[in-house]
Structure formats: structure tokens, C-alpha cells
Amino acid sequence: MALLTIGTAGQRLHQVRVETAFVARSVEPIAATDWGTLTEVYVREGETVRAGDPLVRVERDLEIQTEIARLESLIQAQQREQSRLKTQQVALERERQQAQVTLATATTAIQLECQQIPARTAIARSQVASARGEQDALAQRLAIAHTRQQRFESLLSEGAISQIAFDDVVAEVARLQGAWQVATENLDVARTVLGGTGRGDFIDRDRLQGELPKLQLQQSSSRDHLASITDQLQSQAALIAAIERDLTALRDRQQNLRDRHNLDAELATTYTAPVAGAIAKIPLSQGNSVSRGASLVVLQHDEMSPQIAAYLTWNQAQQLAINGTANVFDPTTGHEYPATVTEIDWTGGRVDGIVDPLTPSPPTDRAGIPLPVLVQLAIRHPNLTLPNGSPVVVTLEKHRDLFDRTARAFRLRNRV
């Protein structure tokens, strides 16, 4: 009984028992080699498959047809816009021609009006001279009449003439005064007519005959309108040219897709399982678009030996060695399997960089809790089937002495 107790105690001194372990099988994503549409899904998540079993089907034809149809829609929209712009261009061209006619008519009328200006000006100057001569003649007669009135006024006071004779002289002065006033007004009118004639305003018998200012305004307005229409036509032409370039590019792209569609002998790809295993995940659904490199199926390998993931404390992990032996106990079946330590992750899978196993304290998370050490083990047993994620109990053998631990720490510290 004492020997059994000593033997059991010795085993406990040289072994580490871990109950926080589980089965973690290797997985492999099946990636798409080309873009297309996922048209068929032959498996379900959790289903087991053999090597060569069909998984999914991706058709490029549907994607190409969809793109061709989209390009056709764009082409039709661009053609409608091009037709609308050409209709506007025709209307603007008619408007431009009308503006040119209006401008030419106004220009011709201005030329005719300008040709009449010298003759009309000469007539207006003659009228001014005539009105000035008449005013001067009346002024002289009025001056003589004023002198006669003064003389008759003296004779009337001496009684040499009668009152009737004096009144006739006063009446003559008043008549001449009125005539001179009318002549002065006529001179002003003649001068005004002469000034307007130089601007193209011709007056004949008190009516305005010339239209040069009006024609000049029409000419200026027509010229501005013509320039505006010309700018619009240039803009329309630039837009039509741009649309034509876009249409050419769209047609070329559509034709390239059609050529590719016609040349592709195989428009669909059926992806099969490279090895036996279980379907862990199907990221896409039937009908989804598929891009090149996208994950279609995640396959969990059956042919590879199950991997065991065990989380240990810092002190426990320091007593282990790579390639160290271990035992894995399956509580469901009660079977025990031999295993080997393949990796010791001192970061627990959550901290970047190298962690020295001989540091006084292990790294911690944000809450200050020490991170566990992740130990990976491989079971040395052919054709073993353990469900992924199932819990197991791992017994690890202590191998590391002080010298070995110090040498490993030195290698870690000097790693580049």
C-alpha cells in the first residue's frame, strides 16, 4: 500500500492534468477561382463528405449576362439622352438661323439709314439756315418798328399825329414781336431736327421717319442672341461628342463580354471536396454573387489527426516541452489516446510579439487577468474520429528541467 501511494505521488509530481481542453480539427476554406453566381449548393453545414463529393456550383454565364444586360440598359439610356440633345440641337440651329436673318436685316436697314444721313443732314442744315435768316429779318423789322414807335410817341405828345396813327404803329410792333417769337421757335425746332438727323432720327412734316437708334438696338440684341445660341450649340456638340465616346466604350465592353461568353466553353465550375471531412460553414447563399477568392465552403478535415487545444497556467506551461508526451482521455467513450505536444503559445493567442516564459509574471488582458498559455497537441492514432469541440482531459508529462528552461528563454530573448 505504501508503494502504491509512493508511485501515485510520483506520477502526480511528474504530470500535469488539464481538464480545460477540447478537440480542434483542422479546417480548410474552399475559395472561388473566378467571379460568377452561386447557383447550386449541394451540401449542408454539419454534413460529412468524402473526397471528390460536389460542394457548390458557380456559373459565370449568369454574371456575364447580368453585366451585358446592365450595359445594354446604360447604352439605351445614353442613346435616349443623345437623341434628346440632338433634337435640342436642331431647334437651336433653327433659332440660330432666324437670329442670323434678324441680324442681317437690321444691319442692312442700318446701312440704308446711314446712307440717308448726309442728305437728311444737309436738308436739316438748310432748314436751320432758313429759320435763322427769317428770325434775323424779323429782328431787323422789329427794331425799325420799335424806333418808329418811339418817334410817333413824341409826335403824339406834340399833337403832330393822331391817336389812330400811333395805335397803328403799336399794333405793327406787336405783330412783328409775335412773328419774331414764332421764327425763334422754328429755329429751335430746326436745330433739334438737325441734332436728331445726325443720330438717325429723321423728322418729315412733324413725323419721325428715321429708325436708326431702334435698328441699332435690334442689331445689338440680335448679335447677343446669336452669340448665346452659338455657345449653346457648342455646349450641345461637346455633350453629344462625350456621349458618343461613352457609347463607344460601353459597346466595346459589351462586345468583349459577349465574345468572352461565346468563347467560354465551360461557363460553370463545380467545386468538390479535396479531402474527406465535415462542412463547417457555408458563407454564401444560393443566388449570391461570387468574387474571385471568396470563401465558398469551409471544410473540416477528417483525414488529419485531431488537434487538441488545452489552456494551462503559466507555471504549468513552464514545465512542458515541445514533442513531450501526453495522454488524451475522452470522457464520452472512456478511451484514452497517446498524444504529442506540438506547440506552446505563451501569448494565449491574444498578444502580439514574443513572450519570455521566464518573466516574473505572465502577460495580462485589459482587466489585469493573467493570460493562459495555449498548448497544442496532436493525437498519435490512425483513423480516429472525435467530434470537433468535444471536451477531453489531457495529462501532460513534465519534462523541462532548469537548464532546458534557461536555454529556451535565451533563444526567445535573442530571436530576430
Overview of this protein structure:
The chain is an alpha+beta fold and 416 residues long. Helix content is 52%, strand content 21%. The chain has 6 helices and 16 strands. A hairpin with a 4-residue loop joins strand 13 and strand 14. Helix 2 runs antiparallel to helix 3 and helix 2 packs antiparallel against helix 4. It is rod-shaped. It starts with a helix and ends with a helix.
Please give a handful of descriptors for the protein shown:
alpha+beta; disordered N terminus; six-stranded antiparallel β-barrel; 416 residues; four-stranded antiparallel β-sheet
Summarize the model shown.
The protein is α+β, with helices and mostly antiparallel strands.
Q: Layout of SSEs?
A:
Elements: H1 2-13, E1 15-24, E2 27-31, E3 36-41, E4 48-49, E5 54-59, H2 60-158, H3 163-199, E6 203-204, E7 207-208, H4 212-263, E8 268-272, E9 277-281, E10 289-290, E11 295-301, E12 307-312, H5 314-317, E13 325-330, E14 335-345, E15 373-379, E16 391-397, H6 402-413
Antiparallel strand pairs: 1-12, 1-16, 2-11, 3-5, 3-10, 4-9, 5-8, 6-7, 9-11, 12-15, 13-14, 13-16, 14-15
Low-confidence stretches: 1-10
Order of helices and strands: HEEEEEHHEEHEEEEEHEEEEH
Q: What is the global morphology?
A: rod-shaped
Number of helices: 6
Structural class: alpha+beta
Count of individual beta strands? 16
**Rg:** 58 Å
Q: What percentage of the residues does DSSP assign to strands (E)?
A: 15-25%
Outline the biggest β-sheet: 6 strands, antiparallel, barrel
Helix content: 40-55%
Distance between the termini: 54 Å
